[in-house]
Here is the input.
Amino acid sequence: MAREFSRRSFIKGMTAAGVVLAVGGCMSWDGKNIPEKVKTGDVTYDVLIIGSGGAGMRAALAAMENKDLKVAVMTKLMPTRSASTMAQGGMNGVTGVTDPADSVESHVFDTVKGADYLCDQDAVEYFAERAGKNIFEMDYMGYPYNRQADGSFHQRKMGGSSHARAAYFEDRAGHAMVHTLYEQCLAHDVDFISDCQMLEISMSGEKNDQLNGVIALDMRSGNLIGIAAKTIIIATGGYGRVYWVRTSNPYSSTGDGIVAGMKIGIPFKDPEMVQFHPTGLSVNGVLLSESSRAEGALLINKNGERFMSKYAPQKMELATRDIVARAIATEIEQGRGLGEGIHAGVYLDFTKIPKERIQERLGQVADLSKRFAGVDITEKPVMIAPTCHYSMGGLEMADFHTGASRVPGVFVAGECSCVSIHGANRLGANSLSEVLVFGHTAGDGASSYAKNHPYVGDQKKLMADCSKWADSFDEVTTRPHMGNRTVPEIRDDMVNTMWFKCGVFREGKQLEEARRELAKLRQDYDKCYVGDSTRVYNTAYEQYIELGNLLQISQAIVEGAIARKESRGAHTRRDFPKRDDVNFMKHTLISPEGDHYKIEYKDVVVTKYPPKERKY
Here is the structure.
């Protein structure tokens, strides 16, 4: 693309509301994935939400309660293909519907204990008080809960919970939630900007604290767009693809929002706290829901032993995820697993569960086992192993009452954020509840901010940031091969480093090796070969952007893991096997500083429950 064309296009497209850069041969295109007013630059959004999962769409609905605001959801996928659709087990909340003995206080304590006391207890109290209300709210919206004989929704007990408080739809809870929210967003005229990869949050001002908007790449056309916004909500989900084939996350979970947030001054909080779900298919990491064990599936080693009696004699298979994942990894390491290498595992046995119950409540689990492992779970056990599932860490939420970050006008919600309510280990079915509670909170907070603040962005800076990315696209996609490594080659090495040296078990020497290996991979990335200079659906360039984000996320995880010299929840250091409440009852805060990261700490908030040993 000629530079002169770029500048003329900017000048022509710039308006008081925004700017659009067409990287292709003309200024217009026919794609229906972007509203016309965004293409022409004729809109400044009051609230622009990045990410169309449960948190993003719940935030949009909350913001749209003010009819005078312009609200949009931008996503690099179709709106109903977010990672939230893959959540299976349910959403926790105290309702008294299935178990009248349950209480908010009990939900708070279960969450605090499950988090290995690293959560902020005031935030947990706020969350638990609102979680049950969101279950009723989703019922009102039309969520198709599994029902009891009297017509009320049913709730089941998930791992680490003392009561049956997870409301659900079969084992497709997230899928149903996303579609329910999407229908409501359409009914309330929320704008959707789909198939657009966020590249940068554009900022200006002497202190770089004035929000201009967002720079994105329209995958359908190859055009770069600058979208002006008073406020944005980052709700882009997690980063499980750091572990690539050993994750239950979709290919879209590449930490885009976290990296963009770090670049504008929001710390990455507790990055070392990565949850490994106990039961991913050993062949590829695809999740078999915790509802499997809630409904009676058993964990069996190659000797036919129900081995959880050694690790959690009271809770057995329904101990917290970190405990069960370590138990499975230990069985494999000590020779009582099946298979070898990255695909070794143990058995998950469903054969004692009535077939009709499997059909009613575990249909997706049965389908996934059949499709990906070739196993009919009603007839024989299926092999599973721990799989990277969830990030307890994320962008620091500075105020859990509003969802605000420490950057004015920028809010965070969902898995890409850290409130912190999950601490060192998230309980099953708390994630969907979290996205509803704090998506709602962030939507309210952003809309209130937008109502009380004018747009202070710099349109020329937004234009300049678009131009910078246009030049970058040209430079990256036209690089000659010249022996430089490719995106898949670098990604494969990253995955091996992370899985074997910063996985379920960690140790100082291996973490130091991971640090050096990742630094070398980032050097390789800076000159890597992409090999596709086309405009339309250039997935090679998209994967290049995503790999850059994953490498930065990986480095942050490793730095946090090196610094935390203890074992707590999902973070297990073999060289520091004990929990250290004296030195590490605090949150890790990581921020970029040149090519390196600086680490700061923030005290954990304790209200009612002083730390004590967890026993299940």
About this structure: The longest strand covers residues 224-234. The two ends are 62 Å apart (CA to CA).
